[in-house]
Amino acid sequence: MDYNILMEKAIEASKNSYSPYSKFPVGACVLTTNNKIYTGCNFENSSFGLTICAERNAIGSAIADGERKIKAIAIYSPNTDNCYPCGACRQVLHEFRPENGIDIVLKQGNELICHTIDELLPEGFNL
């Protein structure tokens, strides 16, 4: 799969963000090991602890559809290059990674850069 397609879908998803408090819209697009694509955006709540990140929103959609392994995720915010996943999202990504890991795709200017979940969360855990 061309990761540019994933990034384009993440960019589109960011336009649906509900982020009136932080003013920091984020979109994400996940690709499962079954080659299905799911998008999500962040949505905030005045009780900040109830805010949901774009990555977990997209992963939740995949899970609700019966998917369990995420092959890649593109993450985008119009507010910054290299919109890395937060710690909570990194742990969720770790939980649903296949044996060979997950590619984390970020936009830096006009280029895409790629990291693995193990680079971003070297000691993630599963029970």
Number of domains: 1
Per DSSP E runs of 2 or more residues, the count of β-strands stands at: 5
CATH superfamily: Cytidine Deaminase, domain 2
Helix fraction bin:
25-40%
Catalogue the unreliable spans. Answer: none
Largest sheet: 5 strands, mixed
What global shape is seen?
globular
Strand order of the largest sheet: 2-1-3-4-5
- What's the CATH architecture? 3-Layer(aba) Sandwich
Rg over C-alpha atoms, rounded to the nearest angstrom: 13 Å
Give the SSE string: HEEHEHEEH
Can you give the mean pLDDT?
Answer: 95
Give the structural class: alpha+beta
CATH topology: Cytidine Deaminase, domain 2
Beta-strand fraction estimate: 15-25%
Oligomer: single chain
Could you walk me through the main structural features you see in this protein, from its secondary elements to its overall organization?
This protein has one domain (3-120): Cytidine Deaminase, domain 2 (3-Layer(aba) Sandwich), CATH 3.40.140. It has helices spanning 3-14, 54-64, 87-95, 117-120; strands spanning 27-32, 37-41, 70-76, 103-108, 111-116. With 127 residues, the protein is an alpha+beta fold.
Which descriptors apply to this entry?
127 residues, alpha+beta, Cytidine Deaminase, domain 2, five-stranded mixed β-sheet, 5 strands, globular
